[in-house]
Design a protein that fits this description.
This is diguanylate cyclase. The chain is an alpha/beta fold. The chain folds into three domains: 118 residues, Response regulator (Rossmann fold); 134 residues, Rossmann fold (3-Layer(aba) Sandwich), CATH 3.40.50.2300; 148 residues, Alpha-Beta Plaits (2-Layer Sandwich), CATH 3.30.70.270. Helix content is 48%, strand content 22%. The chain has 15 helices and 18 strands. The strands form four sheets. Strands 11-13-14-12-17-18 form a six-stranded mixed beta sheet, with helices on both faces. Strands 2-1-3-4-5 form a five-stranded parallel beta sheet, with helices on both faces. The protein has a five-stranded parallel beta sheet with strand order 7-6-8-9-10, with helices on both faces. Strand 8, helix 8 and strand 9 form a beta-alpha-beta unit. Helix 1 packs across helix 5 and helix 7 runs parallel beside helix 8. It starts with a strand and ends with a strand. The relative contact order is 0.06.
Length: 415
Amino acid sequence: MPAVLIVEDSQVVIKVLRFIAQRTLLTFDVVFATNATEACRAIASRNDWFAAIVDLNLPDAPNGEMVDFTLENKIPTVVLTGSIGNDKRDALHCQGIVDYVQKEGLYSYQYAVNLINRLYRNRNIKVMVAEDSSVTRSFIVSLLRRHQFQIVEAENGQQALDMILADDSIDILLTDYNMPEMDGFSLIHELRHQHEKTELVIIGLSSADDKYLSAKFIKNGADDFLYKPFSHEEFFCRINHAVEAMERNKELHRMAYTDALTNIHNRRYFIEQARKLLPKAENTQKPLSLAILDIDYFKQVNDEYGHDIGDLVLVSFASSLAKAFSRFVLARTGGEEFCILFSGLTVERAAQLLDAVREQIENSSVEIASGALSFTFSCGVAELPADSLESLMKEADRRLYHAKDSGRNCVVYQG
């Protein structure tokens, strides 16, 4: 696993940092050093350093020499210090540190350690920088790289729009106001027709001397605004605030659309996706099939073995469906009922795939304390054309009941 170096000469402080790190930095091999000599020896011993937390004033490196050394070795560095003046703070940021933290109590040490996890998570966050000035754009990109973000660049609003619409993995947009071809306002206006605030965070940038500009940006759909020139600290504070807000929103979104027991999507997600995909399939005249699945005799499982075992059956069934139908829209829509939307498949092809999974589940089992528990499922499948999503689901449900009336453990897709 990647390594994190923590260098601190105070035994009290290093004890606190060790306590926090053991509970927080679970994905790292954390190495501690109490002076610069130990730290340099540790750095030379391996080449997988992810980051470092370094005391600015050590007995054998009293003037920040250890910070210089970690930066020279291209190790992202968080600086710990008892006190710091504005000139030294600015100098450290210009050197390229991630951040500095004053030793002011437990919260400060938690903040420093949590910054490492923040850097690690940032590797999966993609930021678009839309700025026509190459100098300003390069400066912003260099700041973002310190914090380990993925970065894409655009020279104007139109280029940024095209790139974002073609790449749904972009999480954050930093956009200038004055740009050729399309300005920041127009870019945000176009994007908000495509992306909700939970999907794309937008931060406006401008050096324009207009005290109302920030309000205009936010009213047009931006989440935040920064006047140029900005300090390193302000920039990082705003970015980190935006990222954390985005992560909270995404987690709330995930919880709202995920079934808590099986960890697959829920009925709300299925209905929303179906309402988007049905008209698209009708307009393009591509096939679309909808299946409703129901575990056979599930009430008997609960009655005989208890709800805990019933839950194990549901989780096992959902896992099997998720593996088999990962490219389709799958959801647990209630109790022992599941739905799958097969975009691009005829009812015959969907039924063929479902029947193969039916055979696999019939020949498998769930391990419980008393032995192996087997189960089966029944399924009804319908396809477009249909008057509405409701009528399509009603037809699939009718065929599901036909499957149950026919003895269960089968897939019905006709009549």
